[in-house]
Amino acid sequence: MSVTATVPRRRRRLGIAAGASLLALAVSGCSGLGRTAVGPVTYTTGREAVLQVNSPSVRGCHRIAPAGAHEVENGTLVDVILYRTRDCTGGRTTYVPTRFSDVTAPGSGPWRSYSFVH
């Protein structure tokens, strides 16, 4: 084996090791606790006020204004689940995919919280 053949192999191995390290760092950064749903969640309350939350956290339960919402637009890059309760529990949920909106059925009551599918 010649010396010239050994040098390119070492560089290649170092390059692969560096690439793997950078990939691991990037993946761990994307899965951090501070991850947000890029884009707005916009909702209209029973009093016709339009409220917008920009890039909320994908973790946890998000409460909607006390009056609740009868129309929700998911402008984020993550799907949303709407709840009739203030604590993201119970049945009668509504699934709103990314870049879609939904309106409550007459007499069904407002949505009071939402969470993200992640």
Q: What is Rg? A: 23 Å
Q: What's the pLDDT, averaged over the residues? A: 82
Question: What is the count of β-strands?
Answer: 8
- End-to-end distance: 52 Å
Q: Indicate the low-confidence ranges by residue numbers.
A: 23-32
Shape: elongated
What's the total helix number? 1
Quote the beta fraction.
25-35%
| Strand neighbour order, sheet with most strands | 2-1-4-7
Main sheet characteristics: 4 strands, antiparallel
Oligomer: single chain
Helix content: 10-25%
H/E series: HEEEEEEEE
Q: Structural class of the helix and strand makeup?
A: alpha+beta
Question: Main traits of this protein?
Answer:
about 120 residues, alpha+beta, 4-stranded antiparallel beta sheet, about 25% helix, elongated, Lipoprotein, signal
Give the topology.
Blueprint: H1 3-30, E1 40-45, E2 50-54, E3 62-63, E4 69-74, E5 80-83, E6 94-96, E7 100-103, E8 113-116
Protein name: Lipoprotein
Organism: Streptomyces anulatus
Keywords: Signal
